From TrEMBL:
Organism annotation: Paenimyroides baculatum
Positions of the Serpin domain: 277-355
A Pfam family reported for this protein in Swiss-Prot or TrEMBL: Serpin
Domain of life: Bacteria
Species lineage: Bacteria, Pseudomonadati, Bacteroidota, Flavobacteriia, Flavobacteriales
Name recorded for this polypeptide: Serpin domain-containing protein
Amino acid sequence: MVGIKLKNNMLKQTIFLAFTITFLSCKNDTKNSGKVINDIITNDTNSSVKNIEERSFPKETDLSEYPKTEFITTLESKINTSKNNVYCVTMLYAWNEVKNIVNEPFKIDSNFKHLTLLNNSSSFKDVLNPDEYIISSEIDGFNIKAKAEFKKSLTFQTELDSHKDRLKFNNEKVESFGITGIYNYEQLKIISILYYKNDNNFVIKLHPKDSNHEIILFKSEKKFDKMNDINSEIIKLIVQGKEDKQNENIKWKYEILEEDEIIIPKFNFNIETIYKDLTGNTFDTKEKSYTIERAWQRTAFILDEKGTEVESEAEFAVATEEMAEEVNKPKPKKMIFDKPFFIMLKKTKSQNPYFGLWVANTELMSKN
């Protein structure tokens, strides 16, 4: 390879990291799915649900076209809550493949904080089954190329209600979907209330036809620094919700009643980016020096009507007190995602998600 140089008697080796991930809420049309590296194909075993039409992604667009959105590589990465933050597990899968190829201890310069965080994260383990993603690698002379890809279809058994102009997110009109009241029993089976304190603090779950996966949405007035902090809070609140359901006086909070509303923005995006914070980073084994030359990721996502300590205990105590004041006084619940919130996709039996989206603005939402 032209340009290879020795450095302190170490053989310098270049690593290409290429990551592609496609998530959608229905079976993907491969002709419109965006860029697939080296024609890697994964078998989609999830069939389309009757009367739910297939959708296609928009053409892939560089992240630079979305000034209010960022990609993060791990659940432990710090998030900028004033922007949308997109996470997907494929970056960690591909990096783990690189480590398996190197297969010996290595040292990362302390200045490369993003690479160190990527290297230390274990939150990718067991978030998908082995047959739900593809990892491949190539070694060509002094070059290593690692790839990770998955596609997942999570359709609903039946469609929820679709709206063109019912929702304003931060006062900007966006397309939305959801449910109102108890008029459609099949729709009611798709949505569960996992925790409810008030209309600005709640957790709901959307049930896809594939019962091994779940879609969690979380709206809160609390501030968070990292997605794993959000995930920990959701886990705690779900436990609280299970306890609440045993209390007959507040059981109504976990039932969808006639005047209740759940309204969620629609999403449809296909974004790719090169991680400049990883490009040029190096790490050294005893005899070799490695340089990351390219770290790329593409994430495509659709969500619509077709188919996220002591302080915690203290907050629970306050919530319990508020609930006690509302004994036998059910009121309409307006669970409307019109302010920043979190979406995550995960296996039902896994603690960590394989996809996370902190939503701060309308940049990734569907609009009229």
